[in-house]
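My convention is simple: the sequence line spells out the residues, with the fold written below as integer tokens. I include a record here:
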Amino acid sequence: MRLTVSIFAAVVLVSGCGGTAPQTDVAGPSEETAAEEEYEDQESGPVETDSGGSSPKSTSLASTFWNDPNDGQWEEAPFPDCDREFSFQNPIVEFDEAISLHFSPGWHIAPHDHMLYWLTGRLSDEDSGWAQGVQVSRRVDIFAPTDIYYMSLMRWIWLADDGGTYPEWSAYFTTCGGHRLVFHHVDDPSNQIIQLLEGVKPDCANSTAEALASDEHEACRWQLQALIPAGEKLLKSSGYSAGFDFGLILMGLTSEELQTQPGYGFALNPWQPTSGNAVCPLHYFPEPHRSEYLETLDSECGLFNQDVPGTAMGFWLSRPTPTEVPPVNDRVVDENTTMWLFKLDETEVHRLTVGSFLAGLPRGQYRFEIRGEGIVNRAWNEVVPDLVYCSTLYRQINFSQFEEVPTADFLVAVSADGLSLVVEAQQPGGCVAESYSFTERAMTLYR
């Protein structure tokens, strides 16, 4: 087994992409069936906020590109360039008939970098519900799909429903070219990784041994440069949710180049959501694994980004977007202040996720069946300036059900320049009026 390590004293940045210069490479647009019952609790637990970077104390070297693979952080990158087109060489799990895949934002609001979920199989066929801190799914080994050169790992200590605590880990592994593998809902780092961590001081304790022996630290981070070859064991799925999250972030590509990658879509400001440089990882596996994974997926893999300029479709924020790309540590916004108007692979259903800011529309995900004409229940990419549109929204209960009684009539109007959106949730009435107008409760959102 080939395993080498070199402790690296640099820090990666919080947002997962670098640069401070104005965005200059934005191009024009390229454009759930409900999940199986077993997926119901995949994202029901605590939501991680780590994105593979460092503490906000990091200072960045000058960078001129929003997707700088070096993050503008290091004098010398801790990873080599890729000597061929980026791809994986190994599968990440021992695949069997109990494993299934699903694409969804989960319980998140904003589009993000780990919307592909690997469901590892429930421990029981009986639907006994879900309790925080109770194992509900198989714990499967996770392997490195390609060589890894740098890692940022975070251990979280969550409160269990029985009053105790339980651990979960998140991991961002850096490959050649600075590309990143994203894992959430994982646990039990391999013996090789634990050995590597013993040579690094975590940010929560004086030593790794001290950190791992304690459950008093809500979050603890390790960062180090290390070579872990493709095929080596990395982690296990935690078993505390229906499976684990796996994402792929491509660094160094412009927005135009990203738009050619599988599952990417189009992002007007790709530096803003954490999905802005995320792609469908399934297409990067060698055969026969690529086809096997795609056949198991219960929907399309993407799109991670769904902005359609001049329409309502896409990602919106409750504050104006800066005219220049902000420093890395200032980019990630609180998703509870955002809204995403999107669709999965159903042709007749469009969806909306909303944070905790709009009166009359509680935080969560909503759906409606689209109509082909008029101002009622129009597809988001057909909601254009000069009109006020109305959609009757049904709230998601779990990953296989939506409420049968509508939550609200949702009014939306796009500005003439397509860069702002007026929205309001009104009492549900089936959107039966001939025209609609906003009240003082309306809010303005921004691209």
Remarks:
- Residues 1-47, 53-62 have pLDDT under 50 and may be disordered.
- The CA atoms of residues 165 and 415 lie 48 Å apart.
- Helices lie at 191-197, 208-213, 255-258, 289-296.
- The radius of gyration is 22 Å.
